[in-house]
Amino acid sequence: MLKVVIVNSKGGAGKTTLSTNIASYFANSGYKTTLIDHDTQASSTYWLKSRPEYASQIQSIYAHDRLFGVTRSWHLKPDPQTQCVVVDSPSALDLIGFKDELASANAILIPVLSSTIDVHAALDFFKEMQLKTKIQHTDQRVAIIANRIHHRSHLPLNLQPLRQLINSLGIKFIATLRDSENYLKAYEQGLGIFELEGRTIKKDIDCWCSLLTWLETRAEISKQKEHQEHR
Ligand SMILES: Nc1ncnc2c1ncn2[C@@H]1O[C@H](COP(=O)(O)OP(=O)(O)OP(=O)(O)O)[C@@H](O)[C@H]1O
Ligand SMILES: [Mg+2]
């Protein structure tokens, strides 16, 4: 099973946008997919509620649902048939309480906006994560995504603070997503950008290639591991 956890304690970095689009991508690729929403704002859960019936199905788990006669760990367990779990997390994340989700992840994605403020916040977040969860920069599961990069701006200049952060931490930098209204359009319809049509979509989808290839590799690695464990 592939488990992708998206984290960054900075609000508005793109956690929900990544979560909904990754979930819809894998659901469309034939994976039985579950989206776990840990945010009390429930943005991923609202997205799933507005998902049209014709679209590929995604199981929804809202972590803050009131539980009657069910333990929390049972509530958070995806359907046994699930092949892909995507976990959306809140800003101001309690990393200690989130340790188990991170420990069981095959991929941990940190979306970061390119402004200096966001880059500094991401640096602090990563240091806190190292301290509280013992996840190191060398951890093969961790990758940074630059999000909302304006396609008209001079990219090298725009991305300089982010590149400095990545170089100083030595974390993998896996994709640069464009700032595009297609993400908002897709969210409003309960869809991912891979499910939209239109002239401008291809440019946005192209930005996902390296990220999706990496996630598919992580899925393959986890499949092989499970196979070995069952032998
Ligand atoms: N690449 C993008 N292009 C354009 N808009 C984007 C992009 N990524 C995110 N957004 C928009 O930015 C806003 C914040 O994104 P999102 O909700 O995904 O962030 P978040 O990290 O989940 O925020 P929170 O911490 O509040 O949960 C949303 O309105 C979303 O549609
Ligand atoms: Mg969110």
Description:
The chain is α/β, with parallel strands linked by helices. It has a single domain (2-230), classed as 3-Layer(aba) Sandwich (Rossmann fold). Helix content is 42%, strand content 18%. It contains 10 helices and 7 strands. Strands 3-2-4-1-5-6-7 form a 7-stranded parallel sheet, with helices on both faces. Helix 2 links the parallel strand 2 and strand 3. Helix 5 runs parallel beside helix 7 (160-169). The model has no long low-confidence stretch (mean pLDDT 92). Adenosine-5'-triphosphate (ATP) is lined by residues 11-17, 39, 41, 43, 90-91, 147-148, 177, 179-180, 183-184, 187. Residues 11-17, 39, 41, 43, 90-91, 147-148, 177, 179-180, 183-184, 187 line the site of adenosine-5'-triphosphate.
Listing every helix as H and every strand as E from the N terminus to the C terminus, the arrangement reads EHEHEHEHEHEHHEHHH
Q: How large is the share of residues in beta strands?
A: 15-25%
Tell me the CATH architecture.
3-Layer(aba) Sandwich
Q: What is the 3D form?
A: globular
DSSP E strands, number: 7
In the predicted model, the low-confidence regions spanning at least 5 consecutive residues are: none
Compact description:
The chain has 231 residues and is of the alpha/beta class.
Task: Describe this protein with a few key phrases.
42% helix; 10 helices; binds magnesium ion; Rossmann fold; binds adenosine-5'-triphosphate; seven-stranded parallel sheet; alpha/beta; globular; 231 residues
